[in-house]
Design goal:
Elements (H helix, E strand, L loop, with lengths): L11 H8 L4 E9 L4 E10 L3 E9 L8 E2 L8 E6 L2 E4 L7 E5 L4 E9 L8 E13 L2 E14 L9 E11 L2 E10 L4 E7 L5 E2 L5 E2 L4 H7 L1 H4 L4 H5 L3 E3 L1
Parallel strand pairs: 13-16
Antiparallel strand pairs: 1-2, 2-3, 3-8, 4-9, 5-6, 5-9, 7-8, 9-10, 11-12, 12-13, 14-15
């Protein structure tokens, strides 16, 4: 069954940060010869919690309409390589993307764990595999896209935190807003709730399912635009 993913341009906070000249400009191009995909890495922003990597990719031969760098539920991954260490970076939230059908071009704002501690060091990021969501389910494009750069001070944003600790109920589930975090490119609302806990499968591996609040927020712009939820919550981070 085809996955219903809402495609949007960069989040408001990211667009504002770019207009203000924040973040590190990368301006690097990578060519995936096998699939005829030209990748352009535009900019990177990071703080204590999260990294945003902005990129575009397009092709003259490969139809990219149903392609995603889906770090959340897809087969896509992103790795950090520094020296002999290769570490898979966890996704943070869902990121965002926008498909231009006229140019067969995708713009992505990937969200993954912070790389702030590597400021001043030469690193490599590798994106592995594109996720395809179609009528028959999930498929993939096996590929690796590489980006080499040194993280400079312009990539790093400071974060301010305001403690809230307020409970509320939504669809018979109890949630607690612990704190709100402000950075140059995003506002995060840190939430715990009765349906946000990690679960375990039969093999003992942990996994998390989407909470009712998270599911509602994911489609907030489409279903409940201009309501309290869409106005108050810019991003949910579960702890």
């Amino acid at each position: 069954m085809q996955k219903n993913i809402e495609r949007d341009k960069e989040p408001t906070g990211v667009k504002v940060a770019i207009k203000l000249g924040q973040g590190q400009v990368l301006d690097q191009t990578f060519y995936d010869k096998k699939h005829d995909i030209t990748v352009h890495f535009n900019r990177v922003l990071t703080d204590e919690k999260e990294t945003k990597l902005l990129l575009t990719y397009q092709s003259e031969k490969t139809n990219l309409k149903k392609h995603y760098i889906d770090l959340f539920e897809g087969v896509s991954s992103i790795y950090l390589i520094i020296g002999d260490e290769r570490k898979k970076l966890d996704n943070v939230g869902w990121g965002s993307n926008y498909y231009d059908s006229k140019e067969n071009k995708l713009a992505e704002a990937l969200s993954f764990e912070s790389i702030k501690k590597y400021e001043g060091q030469d690193i490599r990021l590798e994106i592995e595999n594109l996720t395809i969501w179609n009528d028959s389910g999930r498929d993939s494009v096996q590929t690796t896209w590489a980006l080499d750069f040194k993280i400079d001070q312009s990539a790093v944003s400071k974060k301010e935190t305001v403690e809230i600790n307020r409970e509320f109920t939504f669809e018979n589930e109890t949630y607690k807003i612990k704190q709100i975090e402000f950075s140059a490119f995003e506002t995060r609302v840190v939430v715990t709730g009765s349906d946000t806990k990690l679960l375990k499968d039969e093999s003992g591996m942990q996994y998390r399912v989407m909470s009712k609040l998270e599911d509602k927020f994911l489609t907030a712009r489409k279903l409940i635009k201009n309501t309290v939820i869409s106005l108050m919550i810019k991003k949910l981070v579960y702890s």
